Amino acid sequence: MSKAPIQPAEKSPSEGSSSEFESRSVPKDALEALTAVSVEVGGAYKPLSGTEGAVGFTHFDTPSSEDNSVTVLLTKENMDSPRSQELLNPKLKE
Questions:
Q1: 73 and 59 in contact (C-beta within 8 Å)?
Q2: Burial code of 29-46, b = ≥16 C-beta within 10 A, e = fewer?
Q3: Considering just the CA atoms, what is the radius of gyration of the chain in Å?
Q4: Phi-psi category of 53—alpha, beta or left, where left has phi over 0 and alpha has psi -120 to 50?
Q5: How many CA within 13 A on the CB side of residue 84?
Q6: What is the pLDDT of residues 4-44, one digit of tens each?
Q7: For a tag on the chain, would you pick the N or C end, based on fewer CB atoms within 10 A?
Q8: Cβ(56)–Cβ(82) under 8 Å?
Q9: Which residues, in sequence order, are bridge partners of residue 74?
Q10: How many Å apart are CA 55 and CA 20, to the nearest integer?
Q11: 77 phi and psi, to 5 degrees?
Q12: How open is the CA angle 69-90-86, to the nearest 5 degrees?
């Protein structure tokens, strides 16, 4: 599959005649490319077994990282579920 460079929009938001956001349809070739990538990697996303009820997933930085941080990505359905600074119980999967 060939990779095409992403081109900037024709107008920047400050150059537009309207302050309102105007959505545009996605070109057919872009949708076809996304479908092809999906097929290449095994189809639509399927949650891992044992993750039922999870509100988010941890993602660790590279071993060379020095900030000792852990990132938690929340599922779209649970964006408002944990309160700010709430402690959660992580389940470790190998």
A1: yes
A2: eeeeeeeeeeeeeeeeee
A3: 20
A4: left
A5: 0
A6: 554 544 555 555 555 788 889 999 999 999 999 999 999 88
A7: C
A8: yes
A9: 56
A10: 33
A11: -70, -20
A12: 75
List Cβ neighbours of 1 (8 Å cut-off, separation of 6 or more): 33, 36, 37, 40
């599959």: which residue's tokens?
1
Q: Which pLDDT belongs to residue 41? A: 92
Q: Taking all residues of the chain, what is their mean pLDDT, rounded to a whole number?
A: 76
Q: Got the DSSP string for 1-62?
A: ---PPPPPPSS-TTTSS-SS----PPPHHHHHHHHHHHHHTTSS--PPTT-TT--EEEEE--
Q: In angstroms, how far is CA 87 from the centroid of its own chain?
A: 23
Model-level pTM? Answer: 0.40
Chain mean position to CA 68: 22
